[in-house]
Amino acid sequence: MDDWLPLVTIPVFTGVVGWLINWSGLIMLFSPVQFHGTRVPGLAQLAKVLPRKAQEVPGLLHGGIGWQGIVPARAAKMGSIAVDKAIAKLGTPREFYQQLEPDRIAEHIVTVFEPDMPQVVEEIMEREHPRLWRDLPPWGRQAVIVRVQAQLPIVVRNVTDQIGEHIDQLLDPKIMVIDQFRADPSLVVRIFRDFGERELRLMVNFGFIFGFLLGIPVAVVDSVFHQWWLLPILGVLVGWATNALGMWLIFEPPEPRKYGPFTAHGLFPRRQAEAADVYADIIATDVITLEHIGDFLLDGPRGDRTRYLLAESMRPAIDRAAGPARAMVRVAVGTEKFDNIRDSIAQVAVDRTITPFRDPEFSRQQATKIRDLVARRTKELPPKDFVEMMRAAIREDEWMLYAHGAIMGFGGGVLHLLIFGVGG
């Protein structure tokens, strides 16, 4: 019996190691969200001459020795591929904007902006032409304010129409998604964990099964050849294969495939519909929101163009607000001064009309429309594109998981050798 004990413990060892490999592999995938480690002087320069695969180790190119979860470390990349593979197919910027109901946005802007209009007019007139404003009788000032307020719904509707008409040039969902994922890598972690926790837990348990089954031929080979180096070397193969099988179990095949009496289907793609709802909720709540759209329109890379376009669209309405007195006011204050007053009102109006975009409560109300659009289109994605979108964050870094499995497999083989000796 003593002769058989070392032999039968080999599959048990490889099974436990397989479980540990997949359990620790999940930690490597998702934790920590931010880089944890130590900066080493000169390492960033040295890393640039290392092989490309080595440069992919989180933190190395920035001169740090430590770790960041593979998924959060590649959050921006996943955002980029998610746009190319999915969001670009989910809808154009115009479709996203229309889902937010521009008419409701316009009504909300008027509701928020209208009470502030008298103060806005007062401030601008006091700044640009205080003497003229002071010389006007109270009823004259009130008449100006009333005319400007009367034009407000027209101005605001013109603003939302102009945004909608030029939204494809003003809004870039790809940059929005990449920026949000880069700023908050935990969003990508949530996408995996919120719908895939059961599958990820199953993958860990399968690590024991895969390891145990792969350990059976290892035990046979070891019992035949009795070489001290066999267990560590075969442990490397078992560790590598265990992680590879775990990744295959999650993602492959994208569509059901028959193997004799058995049907194989990746754990994630078989739940594409549920994943679509989770994905859509995160995109609509934290990424492509009305609040973020407003920030991007005014403060993003195309913000200057947005401000110019909106100010230009407001000037005719401001001229109309001046009414019959426009010509007299222009003569009284001078053409340049009149234009300054008009431009100041337009610039302030641009900021004030976009401010309601940044209203978190209103943004949450409008998020339902985006959520429905993203969920519907994600469910319609071809399974191959869905898998690519989900796997994008880790595909190029899977070698680290396999290397981690191989190292642990080697360690398991050495440990068994130390306990039971050669021939076990």
TrEMBL record:
Classification of source organism: Bacteria, Bacillati, Actinomycetota, Actinomycetes, Propionibacteriales
Source taxon at top rank: Bacteria
Record keyword Chloroplast present: no
Keyword list, A-Z: Membrane, Transmembrane, Transmembrane helix
Annotated TM spans: 6-30, 202-221, 227-251, 399-422
PANTHER family linked: UPF0754 MEMBRANE PROTEIN YHEB
Keyword set includes Transcription regulation: no
UniProt protein name: DUF445 family protein
